[in-house]
Amino acid sequence: MMRFTSILVANRGEIAVRVIRTAKALGYRTIAVYSDADAEAPHVAMADEAVCIGPAPVAQSYLDPQKILDAAARTGAGAIHPGYGFLSENAGFARACEAAGLTFIGPRPDAVDIMGNKAEAKRRMIAAGVPCVPGYEGEDQADDTFIKAASEIGFPVMVKAVAGGGGRGMRLVDDTADLPEAIRLARSEAENAFGSGELILEKAIMRPRHVEVQVFADEAGNTIHLGERDCSVQRRHQKVIEEAPCPVMTDELRAKMGAAAVDAAKAISYRGAGTVEFLLGADGEFYFLEMNTRLQVEHPVTELITGLDLVALQIKVAQGEPLGLTQEDVTLSGHAIEVRLYAEDVAGGFLPSTGTVDLWLPPSGDGVRVDAGIATGLEVSPFYDPMIAKIMAHGPTRDVARQRLIEALRRTGLFGPKTNCDFLIDALGRPAFAQGEATTAFIDETYTADDLADAAPSPEITAAAAAIFYMLESNEAQARAFAVDDELMNWSSTGRLATVYRFGTPEAPEDVTVIAAGPDAYQVAIGDASHEVVLLDADPARCRLKVDGVTHDVIFDAPETGVLHISMADRTGLMRNLYAFAGAEDDSAGGGRILAPMHGLILEVHVREGQAVTKGETLAVLEAMKMQHQIRAEADGTVTSIRCTAGAQVPAGDVLVEIDVSTEEQ
């Protein structure tokens, strides 16, 4: 094994920043790669060198092995760290690295091959004596074979792609009638995401915990585990909140699960960092789910409770050095919880969101860690995963870690695309999570559609927003004026002046009146109610104010005239002064015009002009941010126009299908 002094990170975003940070701290020369869309990204500026590898679409940049290898050759890189996602679990890429004389910082290609195919992985685990979920993992991929196997396994079953992960190519099916369509969609999604439509079936273990064990092995085969992580809080089979250790773990269960994970790694002669994932039932029985042959998104919670740098260990093992750790050396201290900050519309069914980051203001504090790859002014594009940052907290107990994390999220400013920040604060505070009882059914069982809907701003937030609008406009006016004394601000010889803002929507406007009652005090009238707002102090993006005697810390940003982002009292909102947009055309679509919810690729069009459709019927399938989204009719009617074609890219807000919804049944 050749020694190396430089590392090319074949990834982007927060993971590229994370890997580069450790590599630079260890004295390695670091090389970033980037697409056209990521030219200004933080990981590019952070690396010692950076190479553009193509256009924004991943197939033409981050997923093109030859472009990565060419960049390594141009910069004289000695090793490649794949991060997670993209080429991290591509055995062919690992072999190509070795053939090019580069060290692949990851497992041996054969191990990637075995565990990258869920069917083969499961067969190997059964042979190794690792407990597995009952299912079908045969080579016959005919629909009839799956239907017969499902009836033998018993519903509900999970249809899963043998390649990849992250919830893609996965469908939960409750009865035989829904199975053919689930197979079709899972196969299509898997082919587009991973290049393979091969599937397996598994018995769906209802309301389990998703518990994974971090394993590490060196070149000599010394294999240990670093404890477990609970990743049960998920939406669309993608993790949202992770923690270590698992809240219900016992020493006996950890020993059994850890031993099974080590056995799994040894069965395939594993090397480097890996994660063995299990489903843990309420009865304490656990079942092998899959093995991720790479670093995990959630690895920081293990770092926080073990004091180990997993990227540093990866590099050490890749250099051919021994781990330098035995199982007895591993100790777990305290508790750590991580949340994934997604650019997504929670009220819209957790759909990915895109747009310019108007403000990124990460939190800090005792036990708080932030891994992010974004910056103010950058674009959250539709081409990549919607996870844009991870926020973590560590504490001596689980509840201390949980409370620290809630406070960290309250101090987080992320404006522009819609995010799940408010949802995360709420989820961390829900009794089921606070008491350590969350399973993979947590979101479905805890939240109703009303819980997830966008809430109207409270009177307190509305009053605060109006006062901040007034403050910003006053500051701008003072900056334009010549020699106006601060003491004269908000003074008029004709008495107090009233400024009126119009919030809400054109259909339901709400007039809010602000009267300056002093240099930093305002009377805000909303309907018949009056609120007193006192500004205590202000920075460009933060202020502290009192609303009716209650003090609040507020994060805000005004990206354009008449628009204000505000985060206050666990709520983030966008306030628009409609008077600033007087005369602007109403672009609302209504039920008859079906718009693209985000920029993406049209994979399928399911209807034709003149066809009668019913509410909820699938009209088209859109691929965006690594997921397939079914575009459905919002009302009964007749298709009058199809404005999209399969294989075409469409921007967010583009009209896809027009439906005449005025047709009445005779």
TrEMBL record:
Domain Biotin carboxylation: 3-448
Record keywords: ATP-binding, Biotin, Ligase, Nucleotide-binding, Transit peptide
Cofactor: biotin
Record's keyword annotation contains Transferase: no
SMART domains assigned to the protein according to its UniProt record, in alphabetical order: Biotin_carb_C
Keyword Electron transport on entry: no
Pfam assignment, any one: Biotin_lipoyl
PROSITE patterns, alphabetized: ATP_GRASP, BC, BIOTIN, BIOTINYL_LIPOYL, CPSASE_2
Recorded superkingdom: Bacteria
GO molecular function annotations of the record: ATP binding; ligase activity; metal ion binding
Alphabetical list of InterPro entries matching this protein: ATP-grasp, BC-like_N, Biotin_BS, Biotin_carboxylase_complex, Biotin_carboxylation_dom, Biotin_COase_C, Biotin_lipoyl, CPAse_ATP-bd
ATP-grasp domain segment(s): 122-319
Domain Lipoyl-binding: 582-660
Protein name as it appears in the record: Acetyl-CoA carboxylase biotin carboxylase subunit
Species this protein is from: Pyruvatibacter mobilis
